[in-house]
Specification:
The protein has 302 residues and is mainly beta. The protein has 3 domains: 91 residues, conserved putative lor/sdh protein from methanococcus maripaludis s2 fold, CATH 2.40.420; 86 residues, Efflux pump adaptor protein, beta barrel domain (Elongation Factor Tu (Ef-tu), domain 3), CATH 2.40.30.170; 84 residues, RNA polymerase II/Efflux pump adaptor protein, barrel-sandwich hybrid domain (OB fold (Dihydrolipoamide Acetyltransferase, E2P), Beta Barrel). Helices cover 11% and strands 50% of the residues. The chain has a 6-stranded antiparallel β-barrel. A 4-stranded antiparallel β-sheet has the order 3-10-8-5, with no helix packed on it. The longest helix is centred in the N-terminal third of the chain and has 29 residues.
């Protein structure tokens, strides 16, 4: 009788344990898995930038002056034409030569004064471009500008001036998003009374050719951190007021755990995160973490 009772108890225990285990396995198998994408946490450098609007200007303009009063016998240049130093731009005929044209002057060369270019560059302004016009001595016939004298003028708020230091490098961004290197060339020692801005001139990289009065965007490095923990912007979660931040870390290959972090520097693609609980190599969800509960079971997409 005693042996029978022991056998019955053992059978009951085995049946109960097996049933519970089977039931637990069924529950685990029915929990839905969210498919996410994840990548290891890395260290690197990050910087944020400050932007200013600027306009191209030529600090030096070279006017071509009429050396005499007279008539324009020939104009050899047009607006925008590139010229070299000493190229003949105009031919002027004196008033006397115009009044006393000689029949013997077959080639009509008497009294002709040639006006050369005083520098390399291109014609930025021209006050006359046809023959026959009368000019007075000292009048400006045209103006030559040179790419070496091209600068970008910024009006920088006083509070941002520490960023824009002399010889500080910057990026010049054109409307089509092409980038030109630039350097702070000169900071004027005066402040606009009304706007409280200071004028800064930026020198573009050598060989840059831009039209005058062109609007450009310039960026300066405002702050930079090295050896920072970096995640993609899509990895960083926040609440509605953006007062708290967290990432979802993968543990045991399938469980997403919520890890609070502090946000550091950020740019358009990556964010610096600060947390003693995170280390290089930790796997962080970068797609699919939105509204994901803590300790969720996930499936990492390959």
């Amino acid at each position: 009788m005693k042996k029978l009772l022991i056998s019955m108890f053992a059978f009951y225990y085995l049946y109960t344990f097996t049933g519970c285990k089977s039931h637990s396995t069924e529950i685990q198998e029915t929990i839905p898995k969210v498919t996410v994408e994840a990548r290891p946490l890395v260290k690197g450098s990050i910087q944020n930038e400050i932007y200013f609007n600027g306009t191209t200007v030529f600090l030096k303009r070279n006017p071509v002056i009429a050396p005499i009063s007279g008539y324009v016998a020939k104009a050899r240049v047009v607006f925008g034409q590139e010229v070299g130093k000493n190229d003949v731009l105009f031919e002027l005929k004196t008033k006397e030569a115009q009044a006393l044209e000689s029949d013997k002057d077959t080639f009509n060369l008497a009294g002709i004064v040639k006006v050369p270019a005083n520098s390399d560059g291109y014609i930025a302004e021209i006050n006359l471009n046809e023959a026959g016009a009368y000019v007075t001595e000292g009048s400006v016939l045209c103006t030559i500008v040179n790419d070496n004298d091209l600068f970008i003028r910024l009006n920088v708020p006083i509070e941002s001036m520490p960023v824009v230091r002399k010889q500080e490098k910057c990026k010049i961004i054109r409307s089509e998003n092409s980038v030109i290197a630039g350097t702070v060339f000169r900071i004027l020692p005066s402040v606009d009374v009304v706007n409280q801005t200071q004028t800064v001139f930026i020198k573009p990289a050598a060989g840059t050719r831009l039209p005058e009065n062109m609007n450009l965007l310039l960026s300066f490095v405002n702050e930079q951190h090295s050896d920072a923990l970096l995640v993609s912007r899509s990895s960083l979660m926040t609440n509605e007021t953006q007062s708290t931040f967290w990432v979802m870390k993968i543990v045991n290959d399938s469980i997403a755990v919520k890890v609070p972090v502090r946000k550091g520097l950020e740019n358009d693609s990556i964010v610096e995160i600060i947390s003693p609980e995170l280390h290089v190599g930790d796997v962080i969800i970068n797609k699919g973490a939105y509204a994901l509960p803590d300790s969720s079971i996930v499936n990492i997409a390959k």
